[in-house]
Amino acid sequence: KIVRFVNPLEKWELVSSLSLSPSSSLLLSVVALNRYTKKRSHQLPPSPPTIPFFGNLLWLLVKPFSRVKALSLSLHEIYGPIYTLHIGSKPLIVIASHSLAHQALIANGAIFADRPQAIATEKFLSCDQHNITLAFYGPKWLRLRRNLTYNILHTSRIASFAGARKWALDALLNRLKSLSSSDEYHHTEIRDHIQHALFSLFTFICFGEKLEDMKIQDIKNLQRRLQSSFDEFKVLKVFACLGKFVFLKRWEKLRQLRQDQEKLMVPLIKARKAMREGKNEKDEPFLPYVDTLFDLQLKEENRKLEEKEIVTLCSEFFTAGIDTTSTALEWIMANLMKHPHIQDKLFKEIKGVVSDGEVEIKDDDLRKMPYLRAIILENLRRHPPSHFLIPHTVTKDVVLGGFFVPKNSIVIFMVVEMGRNPNLWENPMEFKPERFLINGDFDISGTKEIK
């Protein structure tokens, strides 16, 4: 009769008994048992009910992105600090626990450091993952990240941007003053003016040139078009293979967006490259970001970056720096208005540091303002600019929090919920900067713990 296999272990035992010696058969049986019991001794994190074939996929199709965020928070309340969503062929593990995040990102950093394979639309917009956000963990990612952190984000580099910051700030103040001095009542969104000032600053740092307001507005509008198209193009992400044929018009619209982006930025890149060849770098007040990309060598591919890849990195520079900063500033101002006593306390600190007659706060003055620093940290805790970190993927099977996380599964960390944990923070929903004054040596790096 045909033998019925109950589980994979029996298959190993049958094969080994038929073709191998008794000792080899025993060895293979032990290996198979270890492998089998290892995978079955821990289960995947709990998961909401799934629909056959679709899993939890329909959420992404019927829910706008903002609603998916809210749904993720409710799932955390139901299923706990770690749960699974079945979207596509690989499980998506959502982590909302500070201790599990520290265990994954710090204690097992090498295992959780990689990025997942980008979906079709992301691969297209990122030139096949040639940016820091989506590049696989390896030489290319390290080189791109080191270039940004050393040449732009290093303390000495940030100090060199002082003139650029003052120029952007003066422009912002002049725009606000012109509105307030008008005889007519103006209702204006402060967000638009903050974002325009940040785009002015970041385009200056990126291209080394003070662009005209019209050009800055064009770049701003294009970046907004790309970000606001998430819901429209998400069906292309879910059905990548069929989408190129079934949703042809949407793909054409996506391609047009990318062409518009290159049409806008490539002339700025070429102009900077031509200007750079005729100038001495020592004459420049700072090193623009695009200059660092011209000489960047992708050793694993034995070439330099192409123009379209530089466009991708510049776009990433704007998205990562501008949206996070403007969101944080908006929430800080909202909380200062909501809590006048905090605003008064900050004002007194500023007056105690800045000399009479001074109209500007210098960089050196900021180091003498612990309450301002506490307000910023409390704002990032209570209102993180992004509710989730960029997705990670694991390079091998691992057990986390008693649950099995299989190799190549996608892992997302829910930052917003960690800052609202009542076991870590007293009255977590209250905006209270003083909590960071009591613990003055708060570990921002997360090396000791993630809170």
UniProtKB/TrEMBL annotation:
Keyword set includes Transit peptide: no
Any one Gene Ontology cellular component term annotated for this protein: membrane
Record key words, sorted: Heme, Iron, Membrane, Metal-binding, Transmembrane, Transmembrane helix
Single GO MF annotation: oxidoreductase activity, acting on paired donors, with incorporation or reduction of molecular oxygen, NAD(P)H as one donor, and incorporation of one atom of oxygen
Primary site of residence: membrane
Subcellular location: Membrane
InterPro entries for the chain: Cyt_P450 (IPR001128), Cyt_P450_E_grp-I (IPR002401), Cyt_P450_sf (IPR036396), Plant_metabolite_P450s (IPR051103)
Cofactor: heme
Protein name per the record: Cytochrome P450
Record's bilayer topology term: Single-pass membrane protein
